[in-house]
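Predict both folds.
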Amino acid sequence: MAGRGPTRQELIRRRRSGGFIGREGEVSAFRDALKQPPDEAAQFLFHVRGPAGVGKSTLVRQLETIARDGQAVTAYVDESVADIVETMEVISAQFAQQGAALKGFDKLLATYRQRRHEADAGMGVAVTGGDLPAGEVPPPSPSTVIASQLGLAGLGMIPGVGAFTGAVDPHQVAAGADRMKALISTRLRNHGDVELVLSPLDALTPVFLEELSEVARRRPWIVLFFDTYERTGRLLDTWLRDVLVSDRYGGLPSNVLVTLAGQSRLTAACWQDWMDLVTDWPLEAFTETEARQLLTGKGVTDERVVEVILQLSKCLPVLVSILAETQPGSVEEIGDPSGTAVERFLKWETDPARRAAALACAFPQELDEDVYRAAVEEDATELFGWLRSMPFVTDRSGHCRYHELVRGTMLRLQRRQSPARWEQLHTRLADAFGQRRARLEEAAAPSRGWWADETWRAHRLQETYHRLCADPRTALPAALSELLDAYCHGVTSLRRWIQTLARSGRDADSEAVAQWGEDLQAAMDGPGGSGAVFTLLVSRAGLDAVGRALAFACRGLDHRSAERYPQALADYSRATELDPQLVRAYFGRGRTHALTGSHDEAIADFERAIELDPGHFRSVVSRGASYRLTGRYEEALAAFGHAIELAPDYDWAFTNRGVVHRMQGRFEEALADFDRAVELREDPWALVNRGVTFNAMERFEEALPDFARALAASPDYGWAFINRGVTYWELGRHGEAIAQLDRGVELSPDHVWGILQRGRMHECLDRLVEAHDDFSRVIELKPDSIVALCGRGRVRHLMGLYAAAVEDFSRVMELRRPDEWTLTARGMAYRLMGRYEEALADLTRAVAVGPSSAHAHYETAVVLQALGRPECDHHLSRAVELLAPEGAGITSDPAANTGNLVLAHVLSLRWEEAGSLVSAFLGGDPQPGRAQELILALRSLIVIIPSAEPRILALCRTVEERFARHQ
């Protein structure tokens, strides 16, 4: 901001920069890069590399100071980030501190976190069935899938993000991704929100780069530093490469410089095609000349002292700096040159409080003033400012870290010299973090539990680290169990806990803990991902029975998400055996049973979970869903009512109860529930269900706005298109209806009900081939679908495929007890094939089963006429009686009744009445399929009464001509 003075942090950076010695070539090259015109900049990507202690981080800090002094906006990223989204967030936060806020990105990031929470909440209690076809499986939770994507993107293992290696089964990463997209579409507000949740990198990165471009227009340079890249490169490589050199996410401003700093070379698999763009800066230990120059700059000029320092430090920059800091005037002040440089440094510090503080503060992984006070003794509590000024301490916004080499050396020294002190101080720090956590817990827990609170997790993580260091053998089982709680929050948290386990093993020199950390990290980074972690946990000793139960439950979730249901059930069952009180195991097994259609078993599991935890909302809702899917509507209503008591503002409970009310024909109550759900949240699933209810009440015009609102919020919501198509059909807008069904089925290609509706519409429009294809597709998806078999049999009859129609009707009679409709349909097919005896057998059974069926009596009369039997007149008279307007057997389809009366009068040779009825039939503006059906039925009578052929053909022409005019 113009006019403000420098901050204390800026003054510290300038002071240290002024004392910076060495690395003149790299510093000079960096200054030259900042002098380049951005559009001609040949050097924009620097890679500082070398072993620990050579001064990589010191050089990076110096370069950052140079960039800041040149009015550049800078950001520094290290291993504290766990994924790519966090990386962008850290950069944005640092930009904001420099008056260059990325407001658009920050707003979208906040939306992403909120929408992801909403998606998780909806998916967590997603009700099987709902708007899904029977047997369709909801996908895994968005957090599990997205966290997996963010973790694997850097490895190049996500299709479309990097080079997909084949090492990871994409089904494991995002099982049922298309179905998940459809289901999340019902939960989120609009299409953009769905894409934001499912593909956060594709949504966030372009906005991040656009905002970066805005800053770049106002500042001469943007400089990004990625330190400790040997740790973060595994996650960031592919994304960062694409940002820098490809158009995948949009353009990168030309005045952006990037510096990477790590121990290793850049990964060839990722960077090999772009190495010509990288300015490589390999760092080694100082030359003797550089080391002497630094010592001179620090005021150390006695040759004997210089020689001892060179011997102790081996010219490693960080140690040269440490040993020079106290400016020893003689070799005697240094003491015996044997031993470590850190010991010599501490011996020079004559103030015992400072010396003790420096040692104690090596124990925490990161320091703020509160952690400092917990680590040091009372007489050193005011020395935090002194510690922050030490050359081996990196200070960022009040959070300090020791240089890794110095910290490691100090820890080794203290662990060997005083094991009791080692255990005591780590225990004290663990207790301090535990107390911080406890103070947070005095407040009301977040709605998603304490694991969802970032500050709480940070305290818990550090507490775990210090307990492992204090007593590895005792703390290991609890830490391994904690991994599972971390996973329940997300894969990113699991990764952090594994990294902490590995680090504590190294720091405490515990072979058992370190081996666990290495093995878990290898499992996490391998093809099995988190599932391999759980397999490792359940297959090796280290967890108690309760911990192993939780591991089996987590692996069960992994199997369930990947649709490996038998394995999921086995793991959940093993979990309940080990810990009969584990609610999540019963809930998980119940969900798996529900997904496989075993609802009785699912209900039993949900009831056990509720018995153990009466407030377990997800079990309450899921039990209601299983009740609904098994037709136990009153019990479903009670379950959803209970859910509403537990969460009065939860819209999904109202929507689910509304679905049950609609199924019971209690439409006004259903509308009240849907109204309340929409009032709480304009959810597409609730809107479509309300539209379906309006359709059921024949209030079609009122249904259309709900479908429109649902599609405005979720443009890819197939179920909304399908139901709007049904509404258009009822309103006589047949072309629009088919178009809507086409779009709905395109979005949900396995939606059985939608395909079935389209098949019926094609049949009514006399599009027999399309209808046949639709019914056949339904049968592929659901081989025992009686409705589809009947529909295809009917269409095959109209197409003249009588033998195939007989096959379909016969299959229907295998699946259910023969009824009069199926017997009549097959009898008619037999009749058209000339197999009159078989036809008569079916039709006789049809009349016996349905004595009031006009169609069965008519077809029986036709067959008897063909066989020359006198009983024909009885059945024909009965058919006419049932089809008459006052007849008891009249159906709700006037066109069908009128057409059947035409046929009955033709068979009776009553031509005048037949002609009048044809006129009445056409006056009702029948659908094309109905008219074609009448023509085919009339023509089939020519075989039965050959002498009537001219009159029958005349009636057919009348229908064809009038029907043509109507089209």
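Second protein follows, with its predicted structure tokens after the sequence.
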Amino acid sequence: MTKSSWTSKEWKEKGNEDYRKENYEEAVTSYTEAIKLTSDNDPERAVYYKNRAAVYLKQHDYERTIKDCDKALEIIPNDPKALFRRCQALEAMERYEEAYRDVRYIINADPGNKAVQPTAARLHEIVQERYKQNSRVSAKVIQMLEVAFNLEGDKEKRESGMNNLLVLSRENAGAELMFKEGIVKMILRLLKLEKNEEIIISAIRILAELCKDNVPRTESILTIMGVPWFLEMLSSKSQERVNAAQYCLQTILNTFSGMNNKTETKPDREMCEKYKKEIDTILTCLVCSMTSRTITGIARDAIIELIMRNVHYTALNWAERLIDINGLQRLMEVASELEEYKYESAMDISPSTRTITSVCLAIIYENMYYDAAKDKFRNAIEEFIKDKLLTPDIESKVRVVVAITTLLLGPLDVGNTIIAKEGIMEMILVMAGTDDPLQQKVACECIVAAASKKDKAAAIINQGVNILKKLYQSKDDSIKVRALVGLCKLGSSGGTDATIRPFAEGATKKLAEACRRFLINPKTQKDMKKWAVEGLSYLTFDAEVKEKLIEDKEAVAAMIELAKTGDQSVLYGVVTTLVNLCNAYDKQEMIPEMIELAKFAKHHIPEEHELDDPDFVNKRLVALAKAGVTSALVALSKTDSQNSKELIARVFNAICSQQDVRGLVVQQGGAKALLPLALDGTDKGKKQAAQALARLGITINPETAFPGQRIMEVVRPLLNLLNPDCTALENFESMMALCNIAGVNNSTRKHILKEGGFPKIEAYMYEDHEMLRKASIQVINNLVMCEDTVTFFEQENDRVKYLVILCEDEDEDTCKAASGALAMLTSMSKKVCWKIFETKSWLDSLKFLLANPNSELQHRGLVIIINLMESEKDIASKLIKTDLMELLMALTKIEEFKDKKIKELAYSALEAAARWKLIKKNTDNAEIQRNNDQAEINNIENIE
């Protein structure tokens, strides 16, 4: 019979079988099929919903558990099982009042149900405590509202009152009470008159907390305040206030879309559809405000960042809609702005605006994942360029070149398409050859951005190198430094290949020295320092330049100080320079056979410089760490550019490869910055960041490296490294870190299991690679201290059998881990005790442990035997019938033991057997004799 002809009951039986075997995904599928085959009011349908809810409960998917229980209760009201499963899910979600309601229904329907009474008692206590707490919170809220919203009151008391309200708003009870007291309208009235920036910021943050994960409150707040109010709050010169308003708007979008602020979050498509109008309104307002002439530069940056975070298909998938409402043209307007142009209708921009805009354009283009969408994107850009060039004045041409430069820093393919259009490159070169400093400056920037690939660089060398040399002679330092970067970029077009040098020997060192002078000069403006670092980012492909730069402490310190500002416009230059210094870029694998083939075909073979040998690289890594590079990376890691995140992660990982400086990385906030990098970014970037976290977790106590909740958050990226696509080193380092985390406490062990860690870790127990196998077993050894792990070994599988076999492994550490795991498992489970005997070699393995010269292995072997002896009489009887008794008695008589505990454990094993009356003591001795250091058991006999 095929599955297509199965009845609903057959699907249910299949689901029950899958559930027992813990094949939860298959169980869900089976119950779902059963549901499909029953009518809406069929009582059997309720059973299937209840069963599927039980599976979801095991998977910790509490939302789905509740939904299925609701559906079951619609068919059979007050069904005890459905109520109890919903109660368990509600309790897990900390919805205690609702959970208590369900357990009360069960008790009212069945007062004699003893199974739910402990749950009822526990929830009753929690609900009573929460009621008392809510009463206290209510009084506190009313008191703080009176203090904070009194315009005549003391300034410090008002600030303190508003901060207290902010703290209260983070608890659901406090947020609900404040909302009912009308705090939203109070804030609206207050901020029309309020001048105290601290109070304004706290008020905006309170609104964000009220909106978080609560759609009804969010809808009400939007109705009262209106989107323009939030945009008004955003337009400020205070970075803290801008951040608060930006966070508030993102929280509103998250609430409507089912997302949260964690990097791995995904939107709920049903919610997005339901609140499509609200989401569209907010994003449309943001797009329209992007080119507002009345907002501040940092507010404009915040608006573009908000758009950037929500347009991608992994978020709200709003990119095509943005193009339809002319959002690209507005972005290009911002991209074409220059701080130097200060006329009446000019936009206020920050030093980071164009960098953020280029990243936003790149993200939108990435979302154009089919040809028609890409064409729509390119057409919109070309239309903007064409419209600008129709105006003959110089300002329009300058703006076009600035916009092209921004494009080249973002969606490179589109930028290259534009610059390849007839007359564009010629126009740029003509502008570079004029005497107008502004035209020279923007043309020079565009040439630098255009020389992004080897073929492009070659074309520009032919056409523009003489112009760049001429501009380098300029008396205007801002032009000179840009021309210098252009020359640096062209001079580095050979990359790390030591055999390719586009310029004369020694030219790169001279260019590096020129960049250094701009960088370390205290009188040099920040903008020019940024360009100097960008020049170094190209020149540091040359190993000789790397060595010279790393020895120049003044230049390294200046570069790090520049990065600490967090200015996104310095990001590329600093991070690329650091990647080059650390040799953290991907290296092409040189296969000997392919090299010989290339020689035969007379192809060019890249050669690595001797100064890029590991010893030199390691020295550079330590020098950078001691110079404070971690602080710079932390400041720069707040970028939204996925490629930049990858580069930052690469530098972090390279630094963390040096064991001696890992403490410095943690001390300077590296672990905190690495977590988001490990969860959001390119695949390579996430792997690099996760490996860096693993390296920190290996050397440093995890509670120190990842304090508080961070120790839980680091588990997922570490588990992501347990993947066949990762290298053996990444697998190994991940397991070493997980081993340390699993050794911290039961909460961390449970979290590893909750994240699906056990099967991923266990898979490496069967690897041929000795180090990976050993690391895996060591993690399992720590995980078995958690009772939830024991169930994995109690099931119908060969896990216990394999551990018994590994107790005889040639590697001593593997033996210790396997026997340690067995010692803990046998202490917690009688099932595991019986499963030991399923292995044919169980007796040999136990003898191997007891007779081992290593006292630690002997200790573990004796604990296993004690656990087996104490578990059940039948198990003890199986042991007594073997020659293990002779070994145990021998261990009680040997005098040479350094570890006295071995003797005591051997006695304990024999005493356990005596308690079952399987052996007896000498009738002349009431107890087993112990005389100081010597002890004996006289005339112990086996009995049937």
